[in-house]
Predict the 3D structure of the following.
Amino acid sequence: MFITLREPMLFPREIPSFDKLTYPLMAFTKYDGVRVLMAPAGPLSRTMKLCPNKQIQRLLSRHEFWGLDAEITVGPPNLPTTLETTSAFWRTADATSDQIRVFVFDHVEEDLREPYISRFTRAVEIANDHPSVLEAAEFSWADNQYQLQALEELAHQNGYEGLILRSESAP
């Protein structure tokens, strides 16, 4: 597999008007951790810098993980301190933890015009082959604005930042 390294696409910060969206949508829980792209050089941050943490390097530097796009958390992914805890762990070379979670949500290759659902399906297959290391990011289908609003409210009630929305057919 050949991977062209480029900074990952970030999701827009504006809140969409739910009645203007095209349904159905995949509604993913937004984890507040550290974004990671698994590449031949090792796990990279969203700014394309190699992860300094040796445990994360050992865990995610497998060639079968190349191309996975994920979010790492240390500890529960829905605490107000998750980003701070995870960022500190990521930056500390010799830190170790038995609470690392890697939520996989995409498998990027050279051609990102492929429908998202195909890339996500590949990411899920890889995660399922390595359950001690990877987890597929959880999502629910939203068929209309009312379902989407209910899913967003549930995410907030459970301590998450909100949702990330994807169309199954969009690149």
User: Anything to note?
Assistant: The first strand starts at residue 25 and ends at 29. Residues 116-129 form the longest helix (14 residues).
